Amino acid sequence: MADTAPLQDVEDRVARLETRLRREKERNRILTDMIEERTRSIYLAQAEMRDNKAHLESILRSLFSALFITDFDGIVTSVGGATQALTGLAGEQIVGQPVWDFLLFPQPDETPSATTRVGPMPAGRTTPNIEKLCLSQHEAELVTRDAGTGEVGTVPVLVNVSKLRNERRKQVGVVFLAMDTTERRQLELELRQAQRLEAIGQLAAGVAHEINTPIQFVGDSARFLGDVFDDLFGLLGCYAELKAQAEAAGLAGAAAAVDARVAEIDLAFLVDEAPRAVERTLEGVNRIATIVKALKQFSHPGGENMAPTDLNELIETTLVVARNEYKYVADVHTDLAPLPDVTCHRGDIASVLLNLVVNAAHALTDRFGGTDQRGEIVIRSRLDDEGAGVVVEVADTGGGIPATIRDRVFEPFFTTKEVGKGTGQGLAIAHSVVVAKHHGRISFEVDDTLPADDPRAGTTFRVWLPVDGWQ
């Protein structure tokens, strides 16, 4: 009996150890399952984060906006979006630099303006307050550099500034998102130009209407006077016969009095010139009536939709309206072929033609102004070879366009005229109207085979418009 007690104790201890071992195994299994589940969750979360990151990067790449992420002091920590495409600078050239070297915010009492600077902020300019910038959108200038030429400039941008926070809502940086507004500004400029032209057109139509009525009764009065003079001249013939009969009847005194009166008023001159004066008056009245009619047609705004338009008639109307620009320096010739009606925005195409004629007149003024020479403007129209479009050419014998600036002729704000004589918007707007609004083409040619002093030298602008329009 004494030997069985220790053995029982050993068996009990072994049983307890086995039970504990089973519990530990179960606990380990549970922990392993939990670890596997947590690992799976972490993997899925990381995969989702990678997908979200890729999606976000795809969105940022699709935005044609420059993205700068900075620390609290405005030092760039990373870039994204279209930053490199817009600035022409690689990311490593931007990271580590103050964002103020690339985004030029206006100083107090200053508006955004063009600059030729890439580098540290110049002395005297104060660093914008980031906290204040986060309150709203801001117009600024984005510094750019041409990758080919290295030329430095700026483009206008609208900048959104916001605080970058982590998942615990703690601020970890600042985000600057700069959207290029060049096209928007161009559209705003075109809208203002269109509104200005509309106002001028309404004023011209009002003036034409006011002139029309007095011109009508002046013309009617001149025609009445012409008829009166015809009757009076007939009566004078009767008086001449009566005078001859008075002389034959011995009434020499009465006949002499008539001769004295005829000599006093120079009747022969009146008989000769009075009809001419009436004719010149009627010619002037008809000329004014033509101008009034042209103003009414030219200023007619038309509808928002395209409509069939007689381009030859529009060319003739444009020449009447623009006559004051060219009459002292140019002789104008037209070569207008029969055309079908062209579906277009009449008012817009009228503005394009007017701009081309006025530019031609200015080129001739620059070349021949102050001399006794006159230039020539030739306007031609024809149907293209396929019959799908109409071609209008405006040619002048001015000085041509220098080769160094030909690729900039249609750029907004580019002009070779003196300050106050041109905004550089005429040809840019003409290009937009023809190409973007009508799906047409506008180009120019300069005959470089002729010397600049050759009287035939000059420029030909060519506009092609589809006959059926584009809706």
Biggest sheet, open or closed, and with what strands and sense? 6 strands, antiparallel
Based on secondary structure, the structural category is alpha+beta
Mean pLDDT: 76
| Poorly predicted ranges | 110-121, 419-424
Which fold name fills CATH's third level, the topology of the largest domain? Answer: Heat Shock Protein 90
Q: What percent of residues adopt helix (DSSP H or I)?
A: 40-55%
Order of helices and strands: HEEHHEHEEEHHHEHHEEHEEHEE
Distance between the termini: 115 Å
Instruction: Report the principal-axis shape.
Output: rod-shaped
In short:
By secondary structure, the chain is an alpha+beta fold. It has helices at 4-62, 83-87, 91-94, 130-133, 182-248, 252-265, 267-299, 311-321, 323-326, 346-368, 426-437; strands at residues 65-70, 76-81, 103-104, 137-145, 152-165, 171-180, 307-309, 330-336, 342-344, 375-383, 389-396, 441-446, 459-466.
Lay out the secondary structure.
Layout (H helix, E strand, L loop, with lengths): L3 H59 L2 E6 L5 E6 L1 H5 L3 H4 L8 E2 L25 H4 L3 E9 L6 E14 L5 E10 L1 H67 L3 H14 L1 H33 L7 E3 L1 H11 L1 H4 L3 E7 L5 E3 L1 H23 L6 E9 L5 E8 L29 H12 L3 E6 L12 E8 L5
Parallel strand pairs: 8-10
Antiparallel strand pairs: 1-2, 1-6, 3-4, 4-5, 5-6, 7-9, 10-11, 11-13, 12-13
Helix pairs in contact: 5-6, 5-7, 7-8, 8-10, 10-11
